[in-house]
Design a protein that fits this description.
The chain has about 150 residues and is mainly alpha-helical. The protein is about 55% helix and about 5% strand. The chain contains eleven helices and three strands; from the N terminus they run E-H-H-E-E-H-H-H-H-H-H-H-H-H. A three-stranded antiparallel sheet has the order 1-3-2. Strand 2 (about 35-40) and strand 3 (about 40-45) form a beta hairpin. Helix 3 packs across helix 11. The chain starts with 8 loop residues before the first strand and ends in a 5-residue tail after the last helix.
Length: about 150
């Protein structure tokens, strides 16, 4: 059985499994909603990423959020609390000061390629903060147009 956090799916495989175009996944990443792993400048997605993408699509297509609204909602996730950061670290953290993007998007924009945000507890728990347990079940079963 595969580790759900291990990035093994290429963008084309992930897109096929999700029933979307690879460009959709790139747009979600560019919009700060998604943080796939990279190796040799290629994107790789984990099973957790696929679940999260289903949640994103559900929130956009079924709940009527747009990417900006979803990004701002994700920015409210208390990453400093989840990570157990000290009060000093929280005070100096850009993600805590500017609540316009989730913390993993700040890492992406800063060019800090050494961070493994795709395996971060904040990124992995995002669906728990924006969906109820019932909505999560609906999201994982949701297929737009299907």
């Amino acid at each position: 059985m595969l580790d759900e956090e291990r990035p093994v799916y290429t963008i084309s495989t992930a897109a096929e499994l999700l029933g979307v175009h690879p460009r959709t996944l790139r747009l979600y990443e560019d919009g700060g909603l998604l943080y796939p792993a990279r190796k040799n400048n290629r994107r790789f997605y984990s099973t957790n990423d696929l679940k999260w993408i289903r949640c994103v699509r559900y929130l956009i297509h079924k709940k009527g959020l747009n990417q900006e609204g979803l990004r701002r909602l994700l920015a409210l996730i208390p990453c400093g609390e989840i990570m157990g950061c000290s009060p000093e670290a929280r005070a100096n953290c850009i993600a805590g000061q500017d609540r316009s993007s989730p913390c993993w998007d700040w890492a992406r924009r800063s060019g800090n390629g050494s961070r493994q945000c795709y395996a971060c507890p904040v990124y992995l728990s995002a669906s728990d903060y924006v969906l109820s347990p019932q909505e999560l079940q609906e999201a994982l079963a949701y297929a737009p147009g299907g």
